[in-house]
Amino acid sequence: MYSKKRIDFWKKVASLVSVSLLLLAWYCGSIRISDNQSDMVDQLLINGELLTQIHPRLYQGTSANELSPVEFIGLGSGIGYGGITEVAVTVSSQGDIQRVAVLSSKDTSSYLDKVLQSNLMEKILGENIKVSLEIDGVSGATVSTNALTDAIKQAADSVRVQVFGFSMLENEEPVSHFRWLDLMAIAMFTMAILVNKTRHRKKSMFNWAILLSSMCVFGFYSSSLFSSSTMGILISGAWFSGLGNYTSLILLSLVILYIIVSNRNVYCTSLCPFGATQECLAKLGNAKTTSLTNFFFEWFPRGLLLTTLCLGLYFRNPASFSYEPFGIMFGMIGSIYLFVLTVLAIVTSLVVKRPWCRTLCPMNPMTDFIRFNRQWFKSILNKQRAKREIMEANQMADVAVKSNEVSK
Amino acid sequence: MFPQSTLLDPLFWMVLGAIQVLVFTGANQWAKESQLGMNWWKWSVVGFWWLSFILTIAGAFTLLGENEGNAGWYVLGFVGTLLVIGGAAILKVLVLLKPNHP
């Protein structure tokens, strides 16, 4: 209907608009959060108290009539699934914990809700910070619990150091965040590349072996497959200050790098745990392959991913806006709507091959975006090279003409 | 299933009962037409699957009727999905074990 040139033009416009929207969302988000923290700390005060910042991580609440401090508010942070979790702890002048509030969290809301519903924060109220704080873990949300626990301990230590003159916090090595799963991600990605390149007659069998291993390791065991929230974490730079789990980010970075270098996506065919689940179900139900080349199925997932990423950047919490069924499938964590979506995707997989991959998966828009821009960049380079070659040829011709004239 | 309705509840259970009658009368005919070569253990597996399926629907919809919406949907979605996958697996086994399967 439309010429290829015209479609390409509109794709270039869409690509530039997408990047601009992401930058705008990131900028607006930074304006939004700049005063957020001090406002929230103000709200922790009892009416009539005056708040003074005495250290970057410590506030002092003084009664309006007296000059001696009534309570202290310590700030602390811990590293969660999607980045830093910040907590404020209100401590009395005797060292008793009076209130605890989560200032910000980049974790998936379902995980954070699970931790908060376990009354983890209520259990430490009244405890004295002069002795070590004992906080119980919450199974099924270990990373979020650790983030909150570390943040509370750090906030308590801010008060402890400045008011009571001693610390009880142990310094943690940054290397301890890297785990064997991260190495496994690199190893399995390398294997996936090798399998995709090989012409061995048992290539299909090797591919199945990697797919099933990936489904067990990155799916059911660790639920560390990447999603739109990982993409949001990557572009927001939240990973720079630390993450509770780097495996999904490593996988995503490797996939992007490999698409840029070789224009091929090995993740979907050989590594994706949800893809593996759909493949297994397709085998079970003799599912048929269908191709969806409709304009809607091409552009709707792109718009959905862009909206998700923009919201994630604006609210500085990409994990809250992911819409994939991965959390329900491999961890039974997520809202009822995602549960319904997961059930639909699973049941449909019995009759249609990879229905999720063909419709809403964010991997396709991401791959299309990288491929298109790679091609665009390459064509600009080629045009410049061609221009340079023509100019060089013209210069050579001029030199030859001049030398001919001189010799004559 | 329908907490605020006096009419829809009995209708729902009547439809579920009618489906039972149709399934029980039609299953043998369907197995014969499909030439599945059913024997005692195959019927036991299929019967157990059907019983589980019906109990899941009944259980989930009872929960919905008791205003336990989330629990009902989770039972239906989680156990129901597992049973649908199980059903597909059983069908595959039955087809593979057909007496004249190539």
What structural class is derived from the secondary structure elements of chain B? Answer: mainly alpha
The tally of helices of chain A reads 16
Give the CA-based shape of chain A. Answer: globular
Q: What is the makeup of the main sheet of chain A?
A: 5 strands, antiparallel
Fraction of residues in β-strands of chain B: under 5%
Low-confidence stretches of chain A: none
Query: How widely separated are the two ends of chain B?
Result: 46 Å
Please mark out the parts of chain B with pLDDT under 50 across 5 or more consecutive residues, or reply none. none
Q: Gyration radius of chain A, to the nearest Å?
A: 27 Å
Which whole number gives the mean pLDDT of chain A? 86
- The helicity of chain A comes to 55-70%
Q: Count every beta strand of chain A, where a strand is a DSSP E run of 2 or more residues.
A: 5
Topology of this protein?
The complex is a heterodimer of chains A (408) and B (102).
Chain A: H1 4-34, H2 36-43, E1 49-55, E2 58-63, E3 69-79, E4 84-92, E5 97-104, H3 109-117, H4 120-123, H5 142-164, H6 180-197, H7 203-221, H8 228-236, H9 247-262, H10 266-270, H11 273-285, H12 295-314, H13 326-331, H14 336-349, H15 355-358, H16 363-407
Antiparallel strand pairs in A: 1-2, 2-3, 3-4, 4-5
Helix pairs in contact in A: 1-12, 6-7, 6-9, 7-11, 8-9, 8-12, 11-14
Chain B: H1 8-33, H2 40-65, H3 69-96
Helix pairs in contact in B: 2-3
Account of the protein in words:
The complex is a heterodimer of chains A (408) and B (102). Chain A has 2 domains: 33-172, Sufe protein. Chain: A; 175-371, no CATH class. Chain A has 408 residues and is of the alpha+beta class. Helix content of chain A is 60%, strand content 10%. A 5-stranded antiparallel β-sheet of chain A has the order 1-2-3-4-5. By secondary structure, chain B is mostly helical. Chain B has helices at 8-33, 40-65, 69-96. In chain B, helix 2 packs antiparallel against helix 3. Chain B is elongated. Chain B starts with 7 loop residues before the first helix and ends in a 6-residue tail after the last helix. The chains are: A alpha+beta (408), B mainly alpha (102). The interface between A and B is small, with 12 and 11 residues.
